[in-house]
Amino acid sequence: MVAPIYYYSTNRQFSNQSSGDFERISFQEALFQGQAQDEGLFMPDRIPKVSPEELRQLPHMRYPEIASLVLGKFLRPEISASVLSQLAREAYTFEIAIESLGEKRYLMRLDQGPTASFKDFAAQMLARLMGYFNRNGNYLNLLVATSGDTGSAIGRAFQGIPGIFVYILYPRQEVSPKQEAQLTSINGNVRAVSVDGKFDDCQKMVKSAFLDPELRLFHLTSGNSINIGRLLPQMVYYFYAYSRLAKYEEKVIFSIPSGNFGNAIGCEIAYRMGLPVEKIIIATNENDEFPGFLQNGRYEKISPSR
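The chain above was modelled as a monomer; its predicted structure follows.
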C-alpha cells in the first residue's frame, strides 16, 4: 500500500506542540482551508514518481485517463481510483488541440474549455474534487479574486455544485466588457461582486477574510491559485503534451506565459515526478518581481501591480 501524501505550509509556522514537528494535513483539509493560517501555501511533503512503464503508456491514454493517473498519486487513498476516474471524465469533456509551428515547435491550445481560458482545466477539476469531498451536504463559501478569466472559469465550473456558494470579486475598471459579461451572466450559487479598485485590492480582501478568525464560522475557502486543488491539475497538460509529441524519454522544453506562476509550478512538479523536461522557460510581463529575485536574490514586491 502506498503511503499517503500530506500537505504542509510553505511558511512552516504550524508546529506540533508535543513533537515540535511541522504540522501536515490531508489533501481534503488543505483543499478546504485554501490558504494556511500562517499565510503560507500548502504543498505536498513529497513528490511521487511516475514509473517508466507509466510514461510508455501515456500515448495510449486520453486526457481524463492521464489526469486520473497523475492526480491519483497525490490523492489516494483519500479518493479511490474509480471515483477519481469518474471525476476526471466529468471535468474534461473538451479536447486539446496541439498545433505545429514548424521545426519541432508546437502550440498547445488550452482555450478549448467552457470559458475559453486555460484556467478551465484547473477549475473544472477543482469543482469536482470539492463537490466530492463536500458530498455530505455541508455548505462552503468559495472566495475568488479575479482580473477576468479566473472568475469566469471558477464560476462556470462550480455552477450547480450542491452546498458550495461562490463569490467572485473583480476590479470594475480593469476587466473588459466581455469579461464582465461572462462574470455577471453566471447565476444560481455564483455571485460576481465588482470592486472599486485594482485586482490587488480584490486579492487582499480575499486573503484578509481567510485570516479573520471571526469569519471562520462561514466555512471560507479559496478558488484562486493559492489553493493546492487549483495547482495540482495544472501539471496534467504537460504530461498530455509530452504523450502526443515526444518519443519515450525524449526531453522537451516548455515555454510558459505566467502571472502568478501556477502554470510554471505545475510544470516543475511534473518534472520532479519524472517527466523528461530539459528546460522550463517562463515568460512574464512588466510585473517582474520574480526575474529580479533570481538576478539579485531580493524579492521586491510591485504594488500596485502594473
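The chain has a mean pLDDT of 90.
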